[in-house]
Amino acid sequence: MRIGELATRAGVSVRALRYYEEQNLLASERSPSGQRHYPDSAVDRVQLIQQLYAAGLPSKSIADLLPCVVNGEATPELIDRLSAERDRIDSRIGDLVGARDRLGAVIAAATANWRTGQHCRLK
C-alpha cells in the first residue's frame, strides 16, 4: 500500500510515517518512480509505534526495543527495560491522580464558598 493509504488505515499523518522512517522505526520499498510502498503488516507496526510513543518512550528507545517486541525475543535486558518504563509510567499516573484529587478538593471548597456567598473573582 502507498503512504497515504497506510496513514489512513493506521490513523496517523503522512508526516508521522516519514518521521518513523527517518528514525528507522518503519521501512518501505520504493517503486521505480520513487513512491513508498508498505506491506499490510505496516499498519500493526505503526499502531505499536504509536502506543510506545504514547507510553512516553523516545524514538531511540523504540528503535532499540521494536525488533525484540515484534519478534517476541524477550531477553532479560528487554524485560528490565520495559519494566523500568512501566514503573516510570506508574509513577506518573500516581502524580496525576494526586493532582486530580487536589484539584477536586479545591473545586469542592470553592463550590462550598460560592454557596455561602463567598466569591473569589479570577483576575
What does this structure look like?
This protein is mainly alpha-helical. It has two domains: 1-73, Multidrug-efflux Transporter Regulator, Chain: A, Domain 2 (Orthogonal Bundle); 74-123. The chain has five helices and two strands; from the N terminus they run H-H-E-E-H-H-H. It has helices at 3-10, 14-22, 42-54, 59-71, 76-115; strands at 29-30, 36-37. A two-stranded antiparallel sheet has the order 1-2.
Keyword list:
Multidrug-efflux Transporter Regulator, Chain: A, Domain 2; mainly alpha; two-stranded antiparallel ribbon; 123 residues; single chain
Q: Beta fraction of the residues?
A: under 5%
Distance between the termini: 54 Å
- Give the H and E element order: HHEEHHH
By DSSP, the count of extended strands is 2
- Poorly predicted runs of 5 or more residues: none
What name does CATH use for the topology of the largest domain?
A: Multidrug-efflux Transporter Regulator, Chain: A, Domain 2
CATH C-level class of the largest domain is Mainly Alpha
Pfam family, one: MerR_1
InterPro entries: DNA-bd_dom_put_sf, MerR-type_HTH_dom, MerR_fam
Keywords: DNA-binding
Domain HTH merR-type: 1-68
